Amino acid sequence: MSLTSFGPANLIKRSAETHPLTWRLRDDGEPVWLDEYQAKDGYAAARKAFADMAQDDIVQTVKDAGLKGRGGAGFPTGVKWGLMPKDESMNIRYLLCNADEMEPNTWKDRMLMEQLPHLLIEGMLISARALKTYRGYIFLRGEYTTAAVHLRRAVEEAKAAGLLGKNILGSGFDFELFVHTGAGRYICGEETALINSLEGRRANPRSKPPFPAAVGVWGKPTCVNNVETLCNVPAIIGNGVDWYKSLAREGSEDHGTKLMGFSGKVKNPGLWELPFGVTARELFEDYAGGMRDGFKLKCWQPGGAGTGFLLPEHLDAQMYAGGIAKVGTRMGTGLAMAVDDSVNMVSLLRNMEQFFARESCGFCTPCRDGLPWSVKLLMAIEHGEGQPGDIETLLGLVGFLGPGKTFCAHAPGAVEPLGSAIKYFRPEFEAGIAQATPGVPPLARPIVIGA
């Protein structure tokens, strides 16, 4: 699988001017270590931030650039940074990198950490300077063992070069950075569940407010950003706001570039750095090469398992948050999945909902009981044993578990693909409905939650 920003015919050449995240990648896929990274202008932005910019100016620059979170939620990064307290007496604060990339069909952060570990470290160093945080943690998905090895080596290289630790670049600023591997829970992608896990607690989301910027790790002000988000910071500081805004395509309300990809039975599955505003059709046809011979595109998801399904006719949508919202779902992580015409949607949804039900933290009732209920119904329909009213019950669960109905966003993301699948492929669900048992009300059959 390709992890570069080249198109299938190598028509696009990566450069620092157009591909700030990936231009330093090696063609052989090996990591870019410190000497090579610095030879490719690595840490130049950090030196600029430390020597020429006030801390508040760094925050303002990121805010003016319009950088948004790349983990799926898309919250403005500069706004989040601005929530950190201004009180200088609060000298214990933390910067957390959310590297718990557990979203199915998403591997963009893995590529950055495995091949460009110093880009993440530089991004965290500049961010720590801006936020006045003295300690940082990379909370890494436990299964990313290669990324852990590469990050730890890069941290040691940065320490030896005086880029981490005490009195960085002679500025009097101290910043320690640690790589912390998690135990493998999807819910840790939620920032407060991540904080609980880092503290050694059960990975349940916390009630907000207070937000982490006020009360985070060990009760101290904390900022949590995604890997790809932090990796954008050096280029913004190094090249400026106007340059960063100029990268996106016309019509996009989001700025900069984004790691996007396509998986499934496409000819050239891979990951590419592309400007916001590129159409999904361009991503699917020009980069992923369209479907393999003998397969037809049935539907697709724009950014992970927690986004709704779209039809081939929606491929002309622009890949940015607002562009995908216009066709009825979220951009999510930006790594799309093609579903071919051999796939039964009921089986696909049963598999997805099993994953989401298993990964629920169990804290709130709608998520804890509702997701297993959806699995039970889908299993029955999959085996041709569904009962009249089951589809309506599933749609009811989509409503009961929607945004604002649960403690965190886990359940709303879990049921979004379910609702869209029923919307577009209801006959496949209806085909699994058996004849009702005479004398038995359709919804009276027992549903054993959690069995």
TrEMBL record:
Cofactor(s) of this protein: FMN; [4Fe-4S] cluster
A GO molecular function held by the record: NAD binding
Keywords annotated in UniProt: 4Fe-4S, Flavoprotein, FMN, Iron, Iron-sulfur, Metal-binding, NAD, Oxidoreductase, Quinone, Translocase
Quaternary structure, from the entry: Composed of 13 different subunits. Subunits NuoCD, E, F, and G constitute the peripheral sector of the complex.
Catalytic reactions of this protein: a quinone + NADH + 5 H(+)(in) = a quinol + NAD(+) + 4 H(+)(out)
Protein name as it appears in the record: NADH-quinone oxidoreductase subunit F
Broad class of enzyme this protein falls into: translocase
Presence of keyword tRNA processing: no
Organism of derivation: Pseudomonas weihenstephanensis
SUPFAM superfamilies hit by this protein: Nqo1 FMN-binding domain-like, Nqo1 middle domain-like, Nqo1C-terminal domain-like
Gene for this chain: nuoF
SMART domains, per database record: NADH_4Fe-4S
UniProt KW Flavoprotein keyword: yes
